[in-house]
Fold this sequence. Notes:
Blueprint: E1 10-11, H1 19-25, E2 30-33, H2 41-49, H3 57-86, H4 106-118, H5 125-133, H6 139-158, H7 167-175, H8 190-202, E3 209-213, H9 234-241, E4 246-251, H10 254-260, E5 266-269, E6 275-277, E7 281-286, H11 295-308, E8 309-317, H12 322-331, E9 335-344, E10 351-358
Parallel strand pairs: 3-4, 3-7, 4-5, 7-8
Antiparallel strand pairs: 1-2, 2-6, 8-10, 9-10
Amino acid sequence: xxxxxxxxxxxxxxxxxxxxxxxxxxxxxxxxxxxxxxxxxxxxxxxxxxxxxxxxxxxxxxxxxxxxxxxxxxxxxxxxxxxxxxxxxxxxxxxxxxxxxxxxxxxxxxxxxxxxxxxxxxxxxxxxxxxxxxxxxxxxxxxxxxxxxxxxxxxxxxxxxxxxxxxxxxxxxxxxxxxxxxxxxxxxxxxxxxxxxxxxxxxxxxxxxxxxxxxxxxxxxxxxxxxxxxxxxxxxxxxxxxxxxxxxxxxxxxxxxxxxxxxxxxxxxxxxxxxxxxxxxxxxxxxxxxxxxxxxxxxxxxxxxxxxxxxxxxxxxxxxxxxxxxxxxxxxxxxxxxxxxxxxxxxxxxxxxxxxxxxxxxxxx
Length: 365
């Protein structure tokens, strides 16, 4: 029996789905926007403390949507700047590390000129997309302005926060205002694998449907001095880890959704801070995603995750802020386990990440 999409639902554009599989994934391709009534009793109390009002909740959600739309474009321009500094597709000038770049550097200016000339007739799919990010008039002035903005953020994070009273809190605050990035790498699966290892040992589960929030698509990362092919790592890695599970993907970036549409069983364009699907998942993962959300967005995101998670399901992420614990308990997702994992033992000092597992079935302490 068919049913009408929920209020506020919309299909994902740009996906061609065969009739054979349409029925199987149709529900995964429908999203709805969070309302005040969707919040739990305790989440509503926290929402009021954060400045939400029941009567104007829809307007507040629209403000978040508009803000994240702007942050999404800003994040894409960040990737444009990293491409400008690092790519060898359009210039013979050696790659430049963004951490040491300077706008008055002759090599940087040469790269800017070479990129603008190359984008008159783009020679690759990546260049075709980059060209859409540049304004038609005065592109070099635009690049200079955005270059300065990106370098300021890097300086604030890697230099300014060092002298802060709490460097980690300083960095966390910067990420909640940064443009939404689609950076990803094989290391993004380290917290997920560590969490899965704990789950199968302590609470044997057999997830049949899995959701990746923010799978990413490595377009032009800050730390990759020579950008490789555009690719995503998490969908294939999760399918290898859970070969019998259906793996869906959700991302607010339409470019990422297009990139992973063939790797995921269903690809959904949505913003987890305001959207949810009515599909129920046994396992939901979100690495390097929640850190971009401020307190208001994080509370709503936790509620949306709870609405999509099975009663015995698990939610895995790597955001260790106190708020993820607090908001998780408020929406009915208490923390089940917390752990750490080494993602790069060769690096000095070794690079450590964390994983947090929430579950509706966790003890409510």
